[in-house]
Design a protein that fits this description.
The chain is mainly alpha-helical. The chain has helices at about 5-15, 30-40, 60-70, 80-90, 95; strands at about 20, 45-50. The protein is built from five helices and two strands, in the order H-E-H-E-H-H-H. The protein has a two-stranded parallel sheet. Helix 1 packs parallel to helix 2 and helix 3 runs antiparallel to helix 4. It is globular, with a radius of gyration of 14 Å.
Length: about 100
């Protein structure tokens, strides 16, 4: 994935800059490296969940994000707290960006 370090640097330096974390379930190692880099840079709260559609669906992408720490159980590779990952998945991205929800009805 090109420009990950540069993107995370920009996100960390500017209050109103966010990054889309588009997940590709077939690229677990790539996802792992991006999430670890974001965690180490301290910008997990500025990542917006993306399903990777049409290359993946939301369920597969959530499983990929929540599952990669389990793959590392018997290794000494760094992990990311599950709570930090869940926050990316569950947060209200529209609210984070200051966008009002459309009224239904």
């Amino acid at each position: 994935m090109p420009f990950v370090e540069q993107t995370l640097s920009m996100v960390s330096k500017h209050e109103n800059v966010f990054a889309d974390l588009t997940i590709r379930p077939s690229k677990v190692w790539q996802t792992y490296n991006i999430v670890v880099a974001a965690h180490e840079e301290g910008v997990m709260d500025k990542l917006l969940f993306g399903s990777g559609f049409p290359l993946g669906n939301a369920g597969e992408c959530i499983e990929t994000l929540l599952g990669f720490n389990m793959l590392l159980g018997d290794t000494k590779l760094p992990t990311v707290p599950r709570g930090s990952i869940r926050n990316v998945i569950e947060r209200d991205s529209l609210e984070l960006l200051g966008i009002k929800h459309a009224s239904i009805g």
